[in-house]
Specification:
mainly alpha, single chain, 4 helices, 2 domains
Length: 112
Amino acid sequence: MSSKQLTETDVPIILTVLQCCGIKIRADDPAAMKNFIQSVQNRVNELKASSREGQTNIDRKRIEFMLETITDVKNNKKKPREETVQHTRIKKWLQKTWEQVVGGKRKLMGSA
C-alpha cells in the first residue's frame, strides 16, 4: 500500500497476508506491525469519511472483516481454524523466497 488511498485490490491482499502470517510478523517486529495497523486503520477511516460523501464503492463487509482480522492480530488472537491449502502454499512460497533472499545476502557478503 504505497498510495495514500485504500483500493479494492489492497483489501484481499492485506487479508491474505494477515491471515497467513500476521501473528508471526507481529512476533518478529511488533513496532512495524503497529505502524502498519495504524496506517490501515487511518486509511479505512478516510475511506468511511469519503463514503459518506458518496465517493467510494469498496465492499464494506470485506473491510469490516479486514478490520476484525487486524484487531485479532493486534491483540495476538489466533482464530481457531484449519489452514487452507492456499495459505500453506503461500507460507511455503514466502519461506522459499525468504531463504533465497537471506542466502543471496550471505553469498554476497561472503564474496566481499
